[in-house]
Amino acid sequence: MKILILCTGNSCRSQMAHGFLQSFDRNIQVYSAGTHPAEKVNPLAVKTMAEVGIDISKHIPTNVTAYLSETWDYVITVCGSANETCPAFEGNVGKRLHIGFDDPSEVIGTTDFIRSEFERVRNEIKNEFAKFYITEIKNKNCLNVLVTVDFFRQFVRVITNNNGIMIQRFADWLVYDIFGLDASTALGEAVNFFFYDTIKILILLFFISVIMGIINAYFPIERLRNYLTSRKLYGLQYFFAALFGAITPFCSCSSIPLFIGFVKGGIPLGVTFAYLITSPLVNEVAVAMFIGTFGLRITSIYVVSGILLGMVGGFILGKMKLEPYLSDWVKQIQQNSTSDSGTWEKEHTPFFRRLPIIMQEAWGIVRGVLLYILIGIGIGAFMHGYVPEGFFEQYMSKENWFAVPLSVVLAVPMYANAAGIVPVIEVFVAKGIPIGTAIAFMMAVVGLSLPEATLLKKVMTWRLIGIFFGVITLFIIMLGYLYNIVL
Fold it and tell me: Does the reported pTM lie above 0.70?
């Protein structure tokens, strides 16, 4: 397959089209030429293409007369002048097409404006030649295929550009252009919010899960357990337990097996509580969603306070000497099988063999919380589109001194993990609830739940469960008031 792309100077549009079409398929032969070729390729064209990973710096403008005797499957003109003055080819030409674009090299204005015009024309060339490649070369001239290709093109742009504006543009394109919803309606606004937050959170969650998986692979639980039981750490054990809770990807219920393992392994009860408190509050799910929702500053404050809550709560609960209230069942459970991380440590498994398993586990985390994410964002999207401004303010505003304890108490019976509740919290804040009140509500939802209490009943008595829940509820209320003061 041989394709020739023509314009007048062969310094800008035809060179960008040449670069894009060749990048789509290395098996086709792509050439470009000009009816009146320039001395060199336009430097702004080279720079603009380099921004999307395509190097045309070694291209040289060529006169079309060099190709008149050759046989071509396609001859494509990209400017009006070349289309009008295209010479007669001596060789066979299978098909002649004209796909016209504005000439950015003729734009007059500020440097920023000229650059933006080059980017605009570049993007138009990419879009049109992608459609040409699919419909003509791959012979799939079906509108549904074009939509699918454009969908993945837009999605790849989102992944490779971590600017939230790109995700918003993708959501706008999908909801308003493809689905045809009206941006001024509640439905359009809600659906746009749903796709924007879902894509943003899933991308962040996957990559942060991979990072956390790498950390866990080189810092297995057995190592932490042995370290805590064999050394005098003068209180630092609470910090290490809380930190380990922060890097393990568990909700409150999923943390229970490790909590049992800690107790069974002889780790002091207060230290195990430090882990149990921190694990559901601070993990890659919460961090990923907080960064995407509230930014780095609030995320950092949340992470630090969550770890401190685990340390202080564990220390106080440890000083209360609550071991007699543990159940006899704890002493009878058998040791859990050796984890992957322990096996890797013993066999000195190299990193390149660990990484595929880590990425599989990261994808498993995403799949495991996907339903929570969709439900949570769905609720948030509904509230975002349909709940009127000020609805929550009358009950949970900063002026109501009881708003924080009321939020925490109401949250305890409601069970969800961070993936399901953060989108709702985002909408709470947007609707007028103070951020401290909203975060306190979230902490109570993810850190204290009835399903967690049911699982803990196998490990401890109801009295101990009540003490644990009461202490943590008090601390979360205090943090809520503190958040409202400093944020």
Answer: no
79 is catalytic: yes
Tens digits of residue pLDDT in 131-156: 888 777 765 434 433 444 444 344 44
What are the CA-CA distances from residue 440 to residues 212, 249, 416, 472 (Å)?
A: 25, 20, 14, 11
86 is catalytic: yes
Burial class (CB in 10 A: 0-12, 13-18, 19+), 4: buried
Whole-number pLDDT of residue 75: 92
How far, in Å, CA of 293 to CA of 58, rounded?
43
For residue 437, give both structure tokens: 């009140």
Residues in the chain: 487
Rg (C-alpha) for the chain, rounded Å, is: 30
Amino acid type, 257? P
Distance CA 149, CA 422 (A): 32
How far apart are the C-alpha atoms of 392 and 437, rounded to whole Å? Answer: 11
HEC profile for 92-132?
A: CEEEEEECCCCCHHHCCCCHHHHHHHHHHHHHHHHHHHHHH
Whether 253 sits among the annotated catalytic residues: the reply is no
User: Which one from 7, 12, 142, 251 is the annotated catalytic residue?
Assistant: 7
